[in-house]
Design goal:
Elements (H helix, E strand, L loop, with lengths): L3 E6 L2 E6 L3 H4 L1 E8 L3 H14 L4 E5 L9 E11 L9 E4 L5 H12 L13 H4 L4 E6 L2 E9 L2 E7 L4 H10 L6 E7 L3 H9 L3 E11 L4
Length: 213
């Protein structure tokens, strides 16, 4: 299902993110401009529900603060400082292993707020360089995506594997400053990054439950 970058009505304009409806039943509304945000939101919610969305979240306008908060998206920054005792073997994703990476990513991220779903068409990108498996003695510890000095994904394959996965990714760019985005409700990930020395540098957005009747 395609997103709608600009959805306009007489009450304003918004972006509709619909790509997660087939996988999670979720849609996202980002209000761009409106003098009547409540009316615009009702129209957007109605459209998203017609597209099959069961849960709808909205961002982009102060009026939304009257709605229940779903989560905030937080930016964190820190230096890649690999701990030699935690680094393991790093294996780049290949065209042959991209389907397995995608399967594992989607399984681990299914319950994470504001995490997208990887589709088959993403496998070419995964195998082009940014995605990795992390192994220790033949056991899969986790997966990660590191691109343009941004940690886009860390997911453990076994309990406790995220820490070693993160430090192994650090070996790709030791000493460099990295950034990432994480949902405030993903407390395990936030604590993982804080233990590695990352600090919250700002709140990028807030998403509210668009429970419009």
């Amino acid at each position: 299902m395609k997103d709608i970058p600009v959805f306009t009505t007489e009450n304003g304009a918004a972006s509709l993110i619909l790509g997660e409806i087939p996988y999670r039943g979720q849609a996202y509304i980002r209000i761009q401009d409106s003098l009547e945000p409540e009316s615009l939101l009702k129209e957007c919610v109605s459209f998203c529900r017609m597209c099959g969305a069961e849960r709808i979240y909205a961002s982009g306008h102060p009026w939304l603060e009257a709605l229940p908060l779903h989560c905030a998206v937080v930016e964190m920054r820190g230096q890649a400082t690999p701990d030699p005792e935690k680094t393991c073997c790093l294996w780049p994703v290949t065209p042959e292993t991209a389907p397995r990476f995608r399967e594992l990513y989607n399984a681990r991220m299914a319950g994470v707020d504001n995490a997208g779903t990887l589709e088959a068409r993403d496998e070419d990108w995964l195998s082009s360089g940014p995605a990795y498996f992390v192994h220790d003695g033949g056991k899969l510890l986790g997966i990660g995506i590191l691109e343009d000095n941004c940690i886009r994904t860390i997911a453990s394959a076994i309990p406790g594997g995220g820490d070693r996965t993160l430090h192994t990714l650090f070996t790709l760019c030791p000493g460099e400053m990295l950034r990432l985005e994480v949902a405030s409700t993903n407390t395990r990930a936030v604590k993982l990054y804080e233990r590695a020395g990352f600090l919250k540098t700002g709140e990028l957005s807030r998403w509210y439950r668009a429970e419009m009747k």
